[in-house]
Design goal:
Layout: H1 30-50, H2 55-81, H3 86-105, H4 109-131, H5 136-141, H6 150-177, H7 180-201, H8 203-208
C-alpha cells in the first residue's frame, strides 16, 4: 500500500479501532454489569415491600415493575455496550413471559416458578453440552477466563450445573412452604450472596487449571441471579 492510499486515520501497522458493536468494543465494567444483572431484582424486591397497594396486590405490582426494569436493563446493555449476554436474553425473556402470565392470570405461581425453570434449564444445558463434547459455558464465556484448560472448563461447567440444580430445588422448597414476602426476601438475601460466594469459591480451582487472573481483560462473570 502506498502512502497516498494508506488511511490517514491510523499509523502504519497499528490495529484498526473497533467500531460500535465490534468484538473489541469494551464491555461493561464490574459495577455496570452488577447494575444490569441485579438492578431489576433489587427493584422487584423494593416494589414488593413498598408498593402503596394492599398486601395481596404487591406481588403483582412488583412483577410489573420487574418486567419493566428488566427490559430497561437490556436496552441499556444494547444501547451502551452494543451487546446483550445470552444469559441476560434468556432471563429477560422468562421475566416477560412468566411475569406477563402472572399479571394476566392473577396467579403469582408463575413468577415464583421462574427461578426453578431458569436454573433447571441452565443446569440441563450445561450438562448436555459437557457430555456431548460441546462445552456451552466455554462457548459463551471463553474470553473471560484466559488460559483455562479444557479440564478447568469441564470442572467449572460441572460445578455450575450442580449449583443451578440445587438452587432450582431450593427455590421450589421455599416458595411452596413459605409466604410470598419470605420468598422475595430469600431471593435477595440468600440467592444473591450465595451465587457470589460460589463464584469466588471456584477461583482457586480455576487458577490451578491455567486461569490467569492478571491476564483477564474482564471480571469473571457471575450468572444473573433469579
Amino acid at each position: 500500500m502506498t502512502a497516498e492510499t494508506r488511511s490517514p486515520s491510523r499509523a502504519p501497522g497499528a490495529p484498526a479501532r473497533p467500531g460500535p458493536g465490534a468484538p473489541g468494543r469494551p464491555g461493561p465494567g464490574a459495577g455496570a454489569k452488577l447494575l444490569i444483572d441485579l438492578g431489576p431484582l433489587l427493584i422487584f424486591f423494593l416494589a414488593n415491600f413498598f408498593a402503596p397497594v394492599p398486601d395481596s396486590l404487591k406481588i403483582f405490582v412488583a412483577t410489573g415493575v420487574f418486567m419493566a426494569a428488566m427490559i430497561i436493563a437490556m436496552l441499556i446493555s444494547q444501547l451502551r455496550y452494543r451487546h446483550i449476554s445470552p444469559l441476560l436474553w434468556f432471563s429477560g425473556l422468562m421475566v416477560v413471559v412468566l411475569g406477563g402470565l402472572t399479571i394476566w392470570l392473577h396467579n403469582e405461581t408463575f413468577i415464583k416458578i421462574k427461578p426453578t425453570i431458569y436454573y433447571s434449564l441452565i443446569a440441563a444445558l450445561l450438562l448436555f453440552g459437557m457430555y456431548s463434547g460441546r462445552n456451552l459455558l466455554k462457548m459463551v464465556l471463553g474470553s473471560a477466563y484466559p488460559g483455562l484448560s479444557d479440564r478447568g472448563w469441564h470442572l467449572l461447567t460441572r460445578n455450575w450445573a450442580i449449583f443451578f440444580a440445587v438452587m432450582a430445588v431450593l427455590n421450589e422448597a421455599v416458595w411452596r412452604t413459605t409466604t410470598t414476602d419470605f420468598w422475595v426476601g430469600f431471593k435477595l438475601w440468600f440467592f444473591i450472596p450465595t451465587t457470589f460466594l460460589f463464584a469466588v469459591a471456584n477461583v482457586p480451582m480455576l487458577t490451578r487449571h491455567g486461569f490467569d487472573v492478571e491476564d483477564s481483560k474482564e471480571e469473571p462473570p457471575i450468572p444473573p441471579v433469579q
